[in-house]
Automatic annotation (TrEMBL):
This is Sulfate/molybdate transporter. InterPro entries: MOT1/MOT2 (IPR031563). The chain crosses the membrane at residues 20-38, 45-66, 86-110, 117-135, 141-158, 170-192, 204-231, 252-271, 283-301, 308-330, 342-367. Keywords: Membrane, Transmembrane, Transmembrane helix.
Amino acid sequence: MHSNVSPAKPAQPLLAESCGAFADLGTFLPLVLGLIALNQFNAPGIFLGFGLFALLSAMVYGRPVATQPMKVIAALVISMELTPGMMQASAMMMGIILLLLAFSGAIGWLAKQLSQAVSVGIQLAIGLQLLWLGFGMMNETLWLGVTAFALLFASRWLPMAYLMMPGVLALGMVWQHFAGTGSTINAAGSLMDLQFGWPSKDEWLSAAGLLVLPQLALTLTNAVIAASVIGKETFPQDAAKFSPKRFATTSGLANLLLSPFGGIAMCHGAGGMTVQTHFGARTWRAPVIFGSSCLAIAVFWGSDVSYWLGMIPMAVLGSLLATAGLQLAWSKRLLDGKPYCIFVILATAFTCLAINAAAGLAVGILLEHGRRLGRQVPASK
């Protein structure tokens, strides 16, 4: 009997899930490799943390939910050459705060104040920030970064678009090899080096003001509330799974439990979820593939693994980061929204960029609250 199903068809979804699983490397690798190469953090501990966090996400959500470093904390730790103890303290404090907000109901209240216009404004600001960071990384080898970005952008109009991302990574590694620049990282260490650690009193105090406060607003907006919105819009049939409380809970547990064993401050991310689904991820398989790969790196970390990770050019990672930023920043509401809606979006985004995410959130909520009050005031006779 003739079959209408091609033998290759069953393999394509898994291939798409695999490509989507690693689509967020532009956010993940630069910060992780920076902590390992520049700050001498324990690499197996970091990858073990992300592996377990990704598997937890697969179990809880059943969909592609990104796991990322907390950007502000990681960037400050790298740039200021802070200690692993400072990272541990900030991660555990973020974990405690997120769990308190989740189970007190505060995170649910905050999410209800967030209209679609405010959410789009926050996503626009974060997307533009990721674009800017990505373009900065691409500038290291400009032609390579621009070429990679153009290929990734054009992939949306090509069949099997999910193949473009691994293809770009592979071509970048080939170029790095023949260019003779070598690996950007070659750190030693093994999973056997893991030790339970606990921050000192000074590290707790310093981390609270220096790392936790700047990170908190971004985490609440991007990793909890905006991620919840993205999840519900992308997978409406599973909307109940993507509550802000659940995002705050999984992030809180991961940070509180894994950081004493070498994990860094981690969260979910709206941009990561967007770019993963863009490149083919649809089910729990994507976070399982990513998490299992992280666990394998943690177990087999050594000169070979670190060498090949370091062979991915920074410009190519920048193109991935810029792609994630573009996906997050764009919304059809920027074109078809009502004038006041567009005003709220732009005002929220501008305030986020000019001050910070907390200020942008406050401005957006105030503008929407003013509109609600205006509707309740009866017209004068």
